[in-house]
Specification:
By secondary structure, the protein is an all-alpha fold. It contains seven helices and no strands. The chain has two domains: about 70 residues, no CATH class; about 80 residues, no CATH class. α3 crosses α4.
Length: about 180
């Protein structure tokens, strides 16, 4: 663990503070074995698979398998500098995002499919077969490849389907570039 690389103070005093905050035994002397204890502690206090609630405040290893998003519990409203194009998810959005990425099938079943009902209150079960007439498609293999592999196509389809179900405007698909 390279502290300086991650913009942490690596001075002896700071390492002693980290050692104490981790609850490791004895007084920090800077020995190789104590540094190894800190590294081992961080590895066992890591969240590569994610965590909805951190059990207690302290130092934890993050970004060990690549960039991660950390969402902090709010202790009140705060003034925060945001840049043009930044994004803010409200608490409901944050919880929905967690629930969706944790178990997409369960989320869709509970929040999308179960909300589609007929006027009689019974769930709709669709078995839809569609035929498409695409007169401008001259290479069906290339068209199929783009449908499967172009992330922009996927984004447009998601906006046209899930975006509508979740209450976003139907013109939003045109914002994908």
């Amino acid at each position: 663990m390279r502290l300086k690389y991650h913009d942490f103070d690596s001075s002896f005093e700071s390492r002693a503070s980290y050692y104490s905050a981790m609850g490791l035994p004895g007084v920090y002397t800077g020995s190789a074995s104590q540094n190894q204890q800190m590294i081992s502690w961080m590895k066992t206090h890591a969240f590569a698979s994610g965590a909805k609630r951190i059990p207690r405040s302290g130092f934890y290893l993050t970004n060990e398998s690549g960039p991660e998003i950390t969402i902090r519990k709010s202790d009140g409203a705060m003034l925060e500098r945001l840049g043009a194009g930044d994004m803010v998810l409200n608490n409901t959005m944050r919880n929905n995002l967690w629930d969706f990425v944790s178990d997409p099938s369960k989320y869709l079943k509970e929040n999308v499919i179960s909300n589609i009902e007929t006027s009689s209150g019974k769930s709709i079960v669709n078995n839809i077969q569609m035929d498409f007439n695409l007169p401008n498609v001259t290479n069906s293999e290339q068209f199929l490849y783009e449908l499967k592999n172009n992330p922009k196509v996927e984004q447009v389809i998601q906006e046209m389907t899930l975006g509508q179900v979740n209450g976003r405007g139907k013109l939003r698909k045109y914002t994908i570039s």
